[in-house]
Write a structure and sequence with these properties.
Length: 422
Amino acid sequence: MNMFSKLAITAGMSLLLAAGVAQAQNKTFNVWWYELPDTPQAKAWTQALGELKAKHPDITINFEQKTFEQLQKAGSLILNSDQAPDVLEYNKGNATAGLVASQGLLTPLDDEFKSRGWDKILSDTKTPLTKYDQNGIYGSGPMIGIPAYAEFVSVFYNVDMFQANNVKVPTTMDEFEAALAAFKQKGITPLAYGTVDSNAQHLLYTLALTQADDTWVKNYQGLKAPLDTKPFLFAAQKIVDWVNKGYISKDSTGLKGTGGADNLFSSGKSPMFVSGTWNNGNFATNIKNFKWSQFVFPTSKYSTGSTGSMFMVPKSAKNKDLSYEFIGLVLSKENQNAQANLGGVAIAADPAAITDEVGKRNVELFNQISDKGGLGFYPDWPVPGYYELLIQATTGLVNGSTTPDQFVARLKKAYDDVQAAQ
């Protein structure tokens, strides 16, 4: 080989190395989530992104704030396009995670789960919602997501208003309704409620679960049998009754849970708000004029809740190794403890390291529910499109355009059509 050939090869190698360095420097890691900036999850995950950037200073991190509704409505279209991110927060359940998993749009994470030691962090009881079969039904099949927190629906209550009106924290349904009546007698609408978004179904399903047993929950969530409507009929009748008694305002049909009903509670206008732990950051930051707390809605066993939404890696992700590294940082003991001390329901925190009052309470209440096997999941999970149907049908209950019997008939038709096709 002559000198000119060697020079040409050397120059070519230099160009390739330069191109490789430029490519690494221009690498963009795209991350999406829909947790609001003031939530413990978002704050902890932002810390994890900072750690990732420190380890890889040459990459550009492009974070985009999405909304739950955006991904709920257009998740399949987004994930099946070249616009998909490297990693994103996505809702669990048959109708959401299960649907996109059955379409082959997500990267299986089983190998990473073991090789990266995530199986030592998340026990089997925390992973049923990470796996979906070819029909999109949870509980078996490839692992397509990793939860980084837990969540549950409880009753947020204004401690000062309870004390001023001599109302005690209820431990039975009768006591709960007595509390509603006591506030109404004082001219106070007791329940903040919004039917425009997911808050519509939180109260509905919470009431339904007071009438549910193990068989009903397993059949309902797993599409094991045609829909037994009795729990939903009970819930629908309660909502109509509470609207008629003034416990729920008819104006609820114009309110979202986030940015609407939650404001009625945080401003001190309504003493109770049935919603999820995703409100903790907002309330901890913005409620200054009264003391607030939470209690589990009176139920024999089941409460609305689950492990949290999951981080998923789209099939088309360009930087999967960075996605896995980010998930590992989120699952780290340091990040989990930080999330708990920000008031979140961390899934793998060290209880002894939690000093935050809200975070400690959330861990205690979550354990109270989960220790008895009482996580009832969410009502929109079993059937694609059920999220929108539940909102529309519950709005009809509140505004009087839908009777409880008509309500359950709509739910049963949509559910049974899907169940029969399994």
